[in-house]
Amino acid sequence: QVQLVESGGGLVQPGGSLRLSCAVYGFPFSSFAMGWYRQTPDNERELVATIFTGGDTRYADSVKGRFTNSRDNPKRMLYLQMSSLKPDDTALYYCNAPYNGQSWGQGTQVTVSS
Q1: C-alpha to C-alpha distances, 108 to 28, 30, 53, 76, nearest whole angstrom
Q2: How do residues 15-36 score in pLDDT, each as one tens digit?
Q3: Could you tell me how far CA 55 lies from the centroid of its own chain?
């Protein structure tokens, strides 16, 4: 059974950092590119970070230089290290496979506010 479980969100002040985690179950994680998405109530879900099977990464311009996507294939874990956080980063964050879409998890809420 496919399951994506995101964690690590929370409330952080502008300029702060958070590390999100995603545990992956039920599909060949090491064979898939994986990504982090975010969604606010007013916007569509946006892909902000992708990591390919070979470790190459790609980022949306809005997070480039501040977010780092990584993966641990043996542990079936995906991570998003977020730094220099801004209020505009406030969103519900999800993980998924951009080219092999799976059922969505519950997401983890990130709120950047003073």
Answers
A1: 23, 23, 24, 18
A2: 999 999 999 999 899 999 999 9
A3: 15
